[in-house]
Structures are given as structure tokens and as C-alpha cells.
Amino acid sequence: MRQGAEEEARRASHPAGLSAEVGRRGPKSDSPPRATPADTRSATAVNALVHLYRAEMGRLTAYRTRLDTTTSWAITTSALIATFTYGNPQNPAAAFLFLMLCDYFFLYLEARRFVAYEASRYRVYLLERFFYGEVLGVEADARWVAHLLDALRNPSPTISRFGALGWRLRRNYLWIFVLVLLAWIGKLHVAGPPTWDPRELMARAGVGDVPDWLVVALVGAFYVYLLAIAATAHRIYPRGNEDSRHMEEGLAVQ
């Protein structure tokens, strides 16, 4: 036990060596180093890891709640503006254009929160899969300690902002934007004598001095942009860059 504690202290005193080890995220070796059994760690180290896990779970729960909050804001705002716009025939369809911008703001805000959520989720993943695996007597890749130290010293995101946008858009917001678009077209339909003639609908899409063709072109470009984000973001969780996926796959128990 004493020898294991000395080895752990020696590794902790050489951050450069740990950084080099963390940097190797390529294919797993045939015989990865095995983790130090939990019963050889000092009581102080085990207690610190337990408290770290509790803190990360609290942070994870808080960000999970904040993600749900922004989605609720988007749904509530969409319902209020739709009710207001359809409540009076004199209310302009341009309110739905404002709603599209509001929903995108909520999406962008939620993506920022999702980046922080993923960083915390990764640390919880390391502790749950490897530390508690050791406590229960399961051998694990010893590199998890170096990865955890690197995540604590350099809390960089494990998912890109673009990847977070695509993930949250595909999970929650895509159908919201589709409903807003249909509601906008429906309001154009009832803005005068009911008609589905594309030319007549386009003629009703103008906003003030902004010509109708420009409004339609901007809305079309905006939805093409949303579809591009949804289509190009990674489809294997966690969404984002390849490094974040290799970071987890490279730590799998052999």
C-alpha cells in the first residue's frame, strides 16, 4: 500500500508526464496500464474523489435543468406569439419573423449551456466508469487518472459550439422551427382573402419598406442554414468534434 501511494505521489508531481500521456488519444494499446486498486489509495484521495463526484453531479443536474429551461422559453414564446398573431386579423405576420430570431437566440444560449454540461458529464463519466469500478473490484485502464487531472487542470470543452448547436437543434428545436414556419405561412394565407397561390403569399410577406422577395429569401436562407447545421453535426453521441469521441472510446475498459 505504501509503495502504491508513493507511486501515485510521484505521478502527481510530474504534470508534464501526465500531459504527454493525456495527449495520446490514438488507438488503444494491446495491454493498457491497469488502474491502482481502490484499496491502495489513501483515505484522503478516496474522500476527495467522492466529494468531487458529488460536486460534479450537482453541477450536471444544474446544467440539465438550465437546458430544459431554455427549451421551455422557446416553446412558451412561440405559443404566446402565435396566439397574439392569430388572435386578431390585423396583427401582422411579421411577428413570426421576430419569433424565428427569438427561437434561434434560445437555441444558441442552450448550445452554450450544453457545452458546459458536456464538460461536466465527461468528468462524471470518468469517475463513474473507472473510480467506482475500482471500488467494486473491476480492473480499469489506469490512464483515467491522467485524463481526469487534465480535465480539471484544463477544463476545455469536449464538444464544439457547432456540434452543440446541431445536437440541440436536432433533439429539440427543429420541430419548433418547422411549426413556426408553417404558422407564418398560415398567417400569410389568412392575411387577406384566403389563398394558397405562392405569388399572392409572397406579395403578403413584405415588412414595411423591405420588399417581399427579400423577406422570403432571408427566411429561406435561414432555414437552409438550420438544415445544414442539423445535417452536418455528428450523429453519434456526444455530438461535436472527433477528439471528444476518441477521448471516451480510448478509455474503454479492455
In terms of structural class, how would the helical and strand content be classed? mainly alpha
Number of extended strands: 0
The overall average pLDDT, rounded, is 77
Number of domains: 1
Shape from CA axes? Answer: elongated
Largest sheet: none
Protein described:
Helix content is 72%, strand content 0%. It is mainly α. The chain has one domain. α2 crosses α5 and α3 packs antiparallel against α4. The longest helix is centred in the first third of the chain and has 45 residues. It starts with a helix and ends in a 5-residue tail after the last helix.
What descriptive keywords fit this protein?
single chain; 9 helices; disordered N terminus; 254 residues
In summary, what is this structure?
By secondary structure, the protein is mainly alpha-helical.
Topology (SSEs and partners):
Layout: H1 2-12, H2 15-23, H3 43-87, H4 94-135, H5 143-153, H6 161-190, H7 198-203, H8 212-232, H9 242-249
